[in-house]
């Protein structure tokens, strides 16, 4: 039985969707199907009832899910312990953050960590900020820098390292969008909006529209704050993005902050992992270095 199959099985019990889990676990739907079939052969049980339209966990599947979780936790614990030889920490730590956080917040943490523990190997994965929590929940990374979500799951540990304002931005050059903004009595509803697909930015954008009694005219829905800034810089519309992303963007000169967005609440950027992983030496080492930043 392979650990990867267990991880995929756990993920599949959450999505109940082969294509979505296959994509998230970087495999194909047929391979995932074979993996599940193999687990069923090995356990001698039907774990999931599936037809063309739905996937349902069986009673045996529920029991196997508990087994899969315990096995992965035990494996995690074992790896972390054996990697701690004497006082010197070594081994791999999977970290996730946005490309922006790689420039803005990760460098001092990694510098301190590598000075204190030169044998820790950091596997740094970058991606849309909105993916961080899911990556941690599904166990594909150990620790992440993330925005504090509106509802923090109670199995998550989160420590704030910075407070970051959001800004509403528009193009800083002559174009349809900037002309519409310039009009007296701007009709915000007519201006195309570059919308975040998920996460806190999505909910803050929805909230901004609601509080101004407007319906967004969505030009594009994008994943990743960096993409919002670059689409605004192309003149496609206006959008909401964290200041840190705007300031670190190579196209920052092409966008400007709009007064209309000054009422949007800032957010907390922090270090985040599963509560139960906080005791693991490598996770804890990273956590400590991230927390110092703020004290
Ligand atoms: C939320 C977060 O990770 C950042 C740094 O603000 C971002 O990339 O958007």
From TrEMBL:
<dbReference type="InterPro" id="IPR037404">
    <property type="entry name" value="IlvY_PBP2"/>
</dbReference>
<keyword id="KW-0804">Transcription</keyword>
<comment type="similarity">
    <text>Belongs to the LysR transcriptional regulatory family.</text>
</comment>
<dbReference type="InterPro" id="IPR005119">
    <property type="entry name" value="LysR_subst-bd"/>
</dbReference>
<keyword id="KW-0238">DNA-binding</keyword>
<dbReference type="InterPro" id="IPR036388">
    <property type="entry name" value="WH-like_DNA-bd_sf"/>
</dbReference>
<dbReference type="InterPro" id="IPR000847">
    <property type="entry name" value="LysR_HTH_N"/>
</dbReference>
<keyword id="KW-0805">Transcription regulation</keyword>
<feature type="domain" description="HTH lysR-type">
    <location>
        <begin position="1"/>
        <end position="58"/>
    </location>
</feature>
<protein>
    <submittedName>
        <fullName>HTH-type transcriptional activator IlvY</fullName>
    </submittedName>
</protein>
<dbReference type="Pfam" id="PF00126">
    <property type="entry name" value="HTH_1"/>
</dbReference>
<dbReference type="Pfam" id="PF03466">
    <property type="entry name" value="LysR_substrate"/>
</dbReference>
<dbReference type="InterPro" id="IPR036390">
    <property type="entry name" value="WH_DNA-bd_sf"/>
</dbReference>
């Amino acid at each position: 039985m392979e650990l990867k199959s267990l991880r995929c099985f756990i993920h599949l019990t959450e999505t109940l969707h082969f294509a979505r889990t296959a994509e998230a676990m970087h495999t194909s739907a047929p391979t995932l199907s074979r993996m599940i079939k193999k687990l069923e052969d090995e356990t001698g049980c039907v774990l999931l009832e599936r037809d063309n339209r739905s996937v349902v966990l069986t009673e045996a599947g529920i029991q196997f899910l508990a087994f899969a979780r315990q096995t992965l936790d035990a494996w995690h614990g074992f790896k972390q312990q054996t990697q701690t030889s004497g006082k010197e920490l070594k081994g791999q730590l999977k970290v996730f953050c946005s490309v922006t956080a790689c420039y803005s917040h990760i460098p001092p943490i990694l510098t301190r960590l590598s000075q204190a523990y030169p044998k820790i190997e950091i596997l740094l994965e970058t991606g849309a900020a909105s993916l961080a929590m899911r990556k941690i929940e599904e166990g594909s990374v150990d620790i992440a820098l993330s925005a504090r979500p509106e509802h923090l799951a109670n199995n998550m540990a989160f420590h704030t390292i910075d407070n970051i304002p959001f800004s509403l931005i528009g193009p800083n050059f002559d174009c349809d969008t900037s002309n519409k903004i310039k009009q007296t009595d701007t009709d915000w509803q007519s201006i195309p909006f570059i919308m975040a697909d998920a996460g806190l930015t999505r909910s803050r954008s929805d909230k901004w529209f609601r509080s101004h009694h407007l319906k967004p005219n969505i030009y594009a829905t994008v994943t990743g704050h960096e993409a919002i800034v670059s689409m605004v810089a192309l003149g496609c519309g206006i959008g909401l993005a964290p200041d840190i992303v705007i300031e670190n963007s190579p196209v920052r000169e092409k966008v400007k902050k709009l007064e209309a967005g000054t009422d949007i609440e800032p957010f907390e950027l922090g270090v985040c992992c599963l509560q139960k992983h906080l005791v693991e030496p490598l996770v804890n080492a990273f956590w400590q270095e991230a927390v110092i930043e703020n004290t």
